[in-house]
Amino acid sequence: MSNDLVNAPATRSWRDIPQPVKTRAMSRGGRWRVMTAGARTAAGITAALGLAWGVWMLVGSLAQDPRQMPAVAKAIPVKAPELTTNGVLGRDWLARRLALPRQASLMELDLEGLRARLLSDGQVQTATLTRHFPDRLIVAVSERLPIARVMADRNGQQQALLVARDGVVFAGEGHDPALVKKLPWLDGIALSRRHGELLPIAGLEVVGELLARAREADPGLDPATSTHAWHVISLARLASDREIEVRTADGVTVVFSAHGDFFRQLAKLDFLWEALASAPQTPARIDLTLGREVPVTLHLPVSSPAPAGTRSSPSLLKISREL
């Protein structure tokens, strides 16, 4: 091969030649094809939107008036309801509470009536029932969490019932018995009924706030795990003096002010636990309602070297550290 051929420039195509001439306008047939394709696309989109709108209207109409459902669809029995919850309730509870007729179809169900059955259980705070054609019923519930226990007459017998933060009293199902036993008892309350049902207990919001702050402040103050476990919470003076009285399992009574900052009161209580550690078996009364000066009354046994005829030794402790 000669050098002339190797160094020869690449052959140019006719496409590389400048063409200043304007391109020819689209033919009539081409314009027609473009218009036809656009019309078909628009028609397809319109049909899809119309079909979706029709299905939505049909579903809404059937949900409001089951009589419009075709007979074939009405003959399909509904499956076991499906439950989603944020708590401990299960499908067995759901089946008992709904008590659906056997072979009932999805469209024969009265959703509002079934929802009322669920809400009649105080453990259920909200409930939503949704039909999924042709045979699925989806139930979503949110549950109340118990913060305390109370003894009440139920079906002629004294029974321990649970109380939620909004004051609603309910029997409770599915909760761990070991955790339920750690809940404090409520005292100093009057239970009222209407049409045979217990009415919510007033003042439980502030009790729930106190318990929540106790768990946030220090795990050692957790009423469920502390060595000074909160055994009884009395609301006897909540309405009159805005005071909450807590009695621990080891005989200590603590008085909280509902007007004050619970976090600061709990910090003072933590400090006093350390001060009273030398006499862990001595019953005491700690009043946290007076600010920085906290009266502490120790109830000494008769055999202690206390003056004759006395069973208690009151003292006034000042919280020296900044809280």
How would you describe the overall organization of this protein?
The chain has 323 residues and is an alpha+beta fold. Among the domains are: 71-143, membrane protein fhac (Ubiquitin-like (UB roll), Roll), CATH 3.10.20; 184-318, Rossmann fold. The chain has nine helices and 15 strands. The protein has a seven-stranded mixed beta sheet. A three-stranded mixed beta sheet has the order 1-3-2, with helices on one face. β4 (146-154) and β5 (157-164) form a beta hairpin. The longest helix has 37 residues, at 28-64. The radius of gyration is 37 Å and the shape is elongated.
Beta content: 25-35%
Q: How many distinct beta strands?
A: 15
Provide the CATH topology of the domain at 184-318.
Rossmann fold
- What is the C-level CATH assignment of the domain at 184-318? Alpha Beta
The main β sheet shows up as: 7 strands, mixed
Helix-strand category: alpha+beta
Q: Helicity, in percent? A: 25-40%
Rg estimate, integer Å:
37 Å
Q: List the secondary-structure elements in sequence, H or E.
A: HHHEHHEEEEEHEEEHEHEEHEEE
Low-pLDDT runs of 5+ residues are 306-313, 318-323
Q: Care to give the gist of this entry?
A:
This protein is α+β, with helices and mostly antiparallel strands. The chain is 31% helix and 25% strand. It has helices at 3-6, 28-64, 71-74, 91-98, 111-119, 177-181, 204-217, 238-241, 262-275, and strands at residues 82-85, 124-132, 136-143, 146-154, 157-164, 169-170, 185-187, 193-194, 197-198, 230-234, 243-248, 252-257, 284-287, 293-299, 312-318.
